[in-house]
Amino acid sequence: MYSAAKIADCDPKTVRRYVEARNAGRPVAGPVRRARLTDAQLAKIEEWVERSQGHISARRAHEWLVSLGYSGSERTTRRAVAEAKERRRHPGNAAPRPWIAEPGLWAQFEWTGGPPVAGPDGVPRPGVGRPRPAGRRRLPVHHGLIAG
């Protein structure tokens, strides 16, 4: 230990700490991010930031989290919202997250059978189809906006 500390120009206790961490299987390359209270709600916070296009305030997000049973402080929420907004501004650095569906927030489509399409050998195959909205209600069309 002492010779390694002399070569690395550091204290022998530092070398001992790194060797013990390596032998225990812990990473020794840098600091490890500890778990936070907001980790469980991080997907929801990122969804709110994305839906508001980055305009949600941390105070509003904290109120919504408290209504969902969150027990952390407002400062922790502010930090999590600021990090989510930063990831939104620089998306290349963010890790992909799983998609969380919520009832009533997403459109539902049914895939219909399309016309038969000739395959490479000329034999007609069933078409892939096209999506159509599920249900009978349709959105109103504003002809003034279309005719322009």
TrEMBL record:
Region Disordered, as annotated, extends over 126-148
Q: Which protein, by its recorded name, is this?
A: Transposase
